[in-house]
Specification:
Layout (H helix, E strand, L loop, with lengths): L1 E5 L3 H12 L3 E5 L12 E2 L3 H4 L5 E4 L4 H9 L13 E4 L7 H11 L3 E4 L2 E2 L2 H5 L3 E5 L3 H11 L3 E6 L5 H29 L4 H10 L5 H12 L8 H17 L8 H12 L11 H4 L2
Parallel strand pairs: 1-2, 1-4, 2-3, 4-5, 5-6, 8-9
Antiparallel strand pairs: 7-8
Length: about 280
């Protein structure tokens, strides 16, 4: 099957690798063409060119501004050729902007599914992501076999924007856990407890979590090459605070983690993996 894919950052590359390993043919576009020149996929010069060959197009971009650009730029996806075709948007969008994307695509006769991803590079390579999907149920059912190639857990929330809101809520847990685990690791070291042993104990104690399982080795080796960046979690925590503000309710536990990740960004460490927040606590 030919599948279009736009946005080949760390997560996008991993998902493409997974799809290709299962026999799908990838037709890809990336704004920075230099970054994908060595990838073994057919490359297009514009987003619109993908529509000539693909019925389903994935977007895996940094934010809603990038999604809007791919849709509305000259030779973007928002054109006559999109009619009857489906966009699966893996981007973590703004909960209000995503409503605009539903309308823009559906009004022109295409199908838009917001489909944010829970998980990063390692589970993506193994087809073990979690996805939450919002959009028309009949469109979701039609593309579900494709989603099953990349995800082990799949949820559908029919009301538009629900999946995006759920992703932001999930990332509040993610950012909070990572900040706490990083501080606990540094505190144990300051007590002269070997880091690897402290992480082993936390992993069967109060720190037991998917976050710790995924980031234990990064904390031990201090290899902070990005799977999920400080920039990304910082953006998402800002968005979840905006969501709470719109709901007129406080969001106590988001404040400190967001500022800690903002500090990492200010220090020029935005492109590092978000586990590198450990560096703020380490002596």
């Amino acid at each position: 099957m030919k599948i279009g894919f736009i946005g080949l950052g760390n997560l996008g590359r991993a998902i493409c690798t997974r799809l290709a390993s299962l026999g799908d043919e990838l037709i890809v576009y990336n704004r920075n063409k230099e970054k994908i020149k060595d990838l073994p996929y057919k490359k297009t010069n514009t987003p619109k060119d993908i529509l000539k060959e693909c019925e389903v197009i994935f977007l895996c971009l940094f934010d809603s501004a990038a999604v809007e650009n791919i849709l509305t730029q000259e030779n973007g996806l928002l054109c006559e050729e999109l009619k009857g075709k489906t966009i699966i948007d893996l981007t973590t969008n703004h909960y209000e902007e995503v409503l605009k994307f539903h309308k823009l695509v559906n009004d022109i006769g295409g199908n838009y599914l917001e489909n944010p991803v829970f998980g990063s590079v390692a589970p993506a390579l193994n087809g073990a992501l979690t996805v939450v999907n919002s959009g028309k149920i009949e469109v979701f059912e039609r593309v579900k076999p494709i989603l099953e190639k990349i995800a082990i857990e799949i949820f559908h929330l029919e009301v538009p924007s629900s999946a995006t809101k759920m992703k932001l809520i999930n990332n509040l847990c993610l950012g909070s856990f990572m900040a706490t685990l990083a501080e606990c690791t540094a505190l144990a070291e300051n007590c002269e407890i070997p880091k690897a042993k402290a992480l082993e104990i936390l992993g069967v104690g109060g720190g037991q979590s998917l976050v710790l399982k995924a980031k234990t080795q990064k904390l031990i080796s201090e290899d902070f090459s990005a799977h999920f960046s400080n920039n990304a979690i910082n953006k998402d925590l800002h968005l979840v605070q905006d969501l709470a503000y719109n709901l007129k309710q406080p969001l106590y536990s988001a404040c400190v983690p967001k500022e800690l990740f903002s500090k990492m960004k200010m220090m020029g460490k935005g492109e590092e993996d978000f586990s590198s927040i450990y560096q703020l606590f380490k002596k």
